[in-house]
Design goal:
The protein has 359 residues and is an alpha+beta fold. It contains 9 helices and 6 strands; from the N terminus they run H-H-H-H-H-H-H-H-H-E-E-E-E-E-E. Strands 1, 2, 3 and 6 form a 4-stranded antiparallel sheet that branches. The protein has a two-stranded antiparallel ribbon with strand order 4-5.
């Protein structure tokens, strides 16, 4: 019995057994935010070029809008500077693609938060564009107030308002694009698409309007300049020599105020401007202002495709007078009809230099 009890009843363990060793607690690994990638020279250059070319593109758009507005207001006949529209279209065709490409390349690498270098570039352009936009707004307000307070509703005021409004709106959109890098990519893409659409509309409008008109009236504009230059040269020649020149070349060679050589030569070589001297016998002038002077007569013929308007400052400022019942004039008329027109002109020979208004 004693043996069974010894087997079934285990002996108590001694109290001095070592406690189990606790497992070491793993140390927490600190989480670190990856440092921002520094902006490289390529990214900064793309940012600067993108902002700069957008600014120049908007200025070119405003220039084109001003020219197109002037063309619309003045009409094809009154618009006397179609070349400026062609220059604007050429500039926009160059600047707009460059701005779009630079902006697209920069957008791929544009960060949500600017680094120090890119922040400086952004601040410089934001301030510059803001000053231009505010300046345009000031011009718009001043012009509008001037039109309200005065009776003058000039074409220049209308052109100034349209141009200023264009600058304000486009630079305002550009400021948002430059100062808000957190814009979604599709908004950045939308800005580029909007600018491309505006640019294409202006280009098509300019080509269909002023540029087409300029191409169709190229000869007329050359003839108009040639007639005015030749007439001024003839009157200058007679004031110095007391006789009419034998030819256009002789008059132009003696003229110190002759300009636009290529344009005048083009019209003369094509036979669009011709000159005849002494088409009538000289006559003594008996008017009070020219008493004792001799009037000599000549014809200046020009061929036009459309009716044209002469510059009022292109010939001598003399009153209309004639030696033959008003048929011969002392100055060019205000306009000339389409077709071949022979201007019957007269000049007084005198030893004194007559008053004239230069080109």
């Amino acid at each position: 019995m004693n043996e069974d009890n010894s087997v079934s009843n285990p002996q108590p363990q001694p109290d001095n057994q070592p406690a189990p060793t606790p497992m070491p607690t793993p140390m927490a690994t600190p989480t670190t935010t990856p440092a921002k990638q520094p902006s490289g020279p390529g990214q900064i250059a793309l940012q600067w070029l993108s902002y700069a070319f957008w600014g120049w593109t908007i200025v070119t758009m405003a220039y084109l809008i001003a020219a197109i507005t002037a063309f619309i207001i003045e009409g094809a006949e009154g618009f006397d500077a179609p070349e400026v529209v062609a220059y604007g279209v050429a500039a926009l065709l160059i600047l707009l693609p460059i701005a779009v490409v630079c902006d697209a390349l920069f957008s791929r690498r544009e960060m949500t938060h600017h680094s120090t270098a890119t922040s400086v570039v952004m601040i410089i352009h934001t301030v510059l564009f803001t000053l231009v936009a505010i300046g345009a707004l000031v011009v718009l307000a001043f012009t509008a107030v001037n039109m309200l307070l005065t009776a003058i509703d000039s074409q220049a005021s209308t052109i100034a308002i349209v141009t200023s409004l264009t600058l304000f709106l486009l630079f305002g959109a550009l400021i948002v694009r430059v100062a808000r890098p957190t814009l979604h990519k599709w908004l950045r893409r939308g800005f580029r698409i909007k600018m491309v659409v505006i640019g294409l509309v202006l280009i098509v409008w300019a080509i269909a309007g002023p540029i087409t008109t300029a191409a169709s009236t190229k000869d007329d504009r050359a003839v108009t300049q040639a007639v005015q230059a030749v007439n001024s040269a003839i009157q200058q020649y007679t004031s110095e020599t007391d006789e009419l020149p034998d030819s256009i070349a002789q008059a132009l060679d003696n003229s110190y105020s002759f300009n636009n050589t290529d344009t005048v030569d083009y019209a003369i070589e094509k036979g669009l401007v011709t000159y005849r001297a002494n088409v009538k016998e000289p006559e003594a002038n008996t008017t009070t202002s020219r008493f004792g002077q001799t009037d000599v007569f000549y014809e200046l013929c020009a061929t036009y495709s459309n009716e044209v308007t002469y510059d009022a400052y292109a010939s001598y400022d003399r009153p209309t007078n004639s030696g033959d019942n008003g048929e011969y004039q002392y100055s060019l008329p205000d306009t000339a009809p389409a077709g071949t027109t022979c201007h019957k002109l007269v000049v007084s020979l005198t030893n004194s230099t007559p008053f004239y208004r230069p080109l």
